[in-house]
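Hi U.,

Before I forget, here's the chain from the pilot set. I'm dumping it here mostly so it's searchable later in email.
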Amino acid sequence: MDHQQTAVGEGDGAVDPEAVKQSIRAHGERIKQQELQQAMNRLEAHGTLTAEQRRIVDEMATAILDEILSSPESVLEADDHDPETVRTAVDLFDPKA
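Structure:
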């Protein structure tokens, strides 16, 4: 089953909020890892980073991602979410849908 079918349904317009939430989180994690690697490389070019400094940068990136995704995730976790709201979350936060 492809991503489109999992998140948005198999052509019936149904939306699986949990699949959308997982897809959004996975996409955000991929971006976080890419940006973290670039940031670490740039910082290392100016001198060696300690393990503590690396941990702090990683925690900051995780906190930023968590804050950005908290709103769409809370909408997708709600018991009474409407399908249009879920589709909006897909449109805004899941570029693969």
